[in-house]
Amino acid sequence: MEQNNKRFPEGFLWGGATAANQMEGGFHEGNKGLNIADVLPGGKERLKLLMNPGFNFEIDEEKYTYPNHEGIDFYHRYKEDIALFAEMGFKAFRLSIAWTRIFPNGDELEPNEEGLAFYDRVFDELHKHGIEPVVTISHYEMPVNLVKEYRGWRNREVVTFFERYVNAIFNRYKDKVKYWMTFNEINSGLMMPIMGLGFAIEKEEDKYQPTYQAFHHQFVASSIAVKACHEIIPESQIGCMIIFAPVYPFDSNPENVLYAHQEERLFNNFCADVQVRGEYPAFIKRYFKKHGIELEIQEGDLELIKEHTVDYIGFSYYMSRTEKKEKTELEKAQGNMLAGVKNPFLKASDWGWEIDPTGLRTSLNKLYDRYELPLFIVENGLGAYDKVEEDGSINDDYRIKYLSEHIAAMRDAINEDGVEMIGYTSWGCIDLVSASTGEMSKRYGFIYVDKHDDGSGTLARKKKKSFYWYKDVIASNGEK
């Protein structure tokens, strides 16, 4: 029987996505330790700290605010929030486990029971409502102790601590979690190693060696996690997770076409090639040689990476990127860390991220053609300023338009292009703290949270217009 080309495959996992450090709060409760997000201040200064050398990973409450400390208080309100997700009809909910709830310092020998018990309660509540947990093992929340005492993922010893962590959570939740991902947006370490790799670049000229050595340690750790997951939870699926942004050449000048291609391979393909194909690609070996990078690879590392590759590819898609080999300051786009030059054919969000639903279809085709593995869009959404009207309504038609166009592009990739997909979890399904700027005003959710950049607010939840729209999308399996 032919698939209805307006609907999605049966069993498609519709849902929403979040991260512990951006929503949980309770940063000192349950014997939780400090993680990287806990020491990142809110506001525009955060991006400078993430991108510039020399951050010290200390809290300075006289100088900064720290919105991640309270988040949206999911730690205490998870039952209320999960009930709202269930009302929308979620089939899946992507969340992360805070590493420092399980191992507060990262290097303990035994896990923290209070942290383990918290996620037991969350997973049980999800299953009560028929919602499948999709769990990211490490989502920008490395223990600060591992950063200060061990220098983050540069240190091989961190692989051992990560192995201890994954074994603890796989054994504890083996009957509760089927879908896992290892490192959130692993390739983000190329641009902001603080969040992804657990260290700040000390000098610009020294960035290459420590960055790629840290990546190697993460690839080893990822393969260890894949191996353990398959052994402990045989019915599980474990994937990698990358940022994907197709790179367009600014024009048909062959120099710009080649430059765009090289940029796309380095950012979009390098990490996925290693985790999916199980080996370092030829282009990155040439890149290492060019930049004098010599990895310390222990005996058995390459065999481990080759033998234990991921089951699916999870990825985030927010925008495409347009590149020009020679560009002026005036030509640069005002987007996130991926911004290249302005694309004259695209409009942009309030934060300057260019909106390109066709780019999502392009991305799905590129990924599936290259890897031939099931794909899972685990982040996609529009950060925008939302206004609460006098009658209490929030009419976020701009969000509905953005998501509707991207979901249509996804549907066409499945039905017209033959792409295999597991599901779609819209980012920030409930408003949360922005990872890049620490703002609450940059809202993604179907559910409004009364919390503001200055820390004020009641934390009350309110349904936006998009809440009811997404409920219809899920109920109709994408036909509406």
Automatic annotation (TrEMBL):
<dbReference type="InterPro" id="IPR018120">
    <property type="entry name" value="Glyco_hydro_1_AS"/>
</dbReference>
<comment type="similarity">
    <text>Belongs to the glycosyl hydrolase 1 family.</text>
</comment>
<protein>
    <submittedName>
        <fullName>Glycoside hydrolase family 1 protein</fullName>
        <ecNumber>3.2.1.-</ecNumber>
    </submittedName>
</protein>
<dbReference type="InterPro" id="IPR033132">
    <property type="entry name" value="GH_1_N_CS"/>
</dbReference>
<feature type="active site" description="Nucleophile">
    <location>
        <position position="379"/>
    </location>
</feature>
<dbReference type="Pfam" id="PF00232">
    <property type="entry name" value="Glyco_hydro_1"/>
</dbReference>
<dbReference type="InterPro" id="IPR017853">
    <property type="entry name" value="GH"/>
</dbReference>
<keyword id="KW-0378">Hydrolase</keyword>
<keyword id="KW-0326">Glycosidase</keyword>
<dbReference type="InterPro" id="IPR001360">
    <property type="entry name" value="Glyco_hydro_1"/>
</dbReference>
<dbReference type="GO" id="GO:0016798">
    <property type="term" value="F:hydrolase activity, acting on glycosyl bonds"/>
</dbReference>
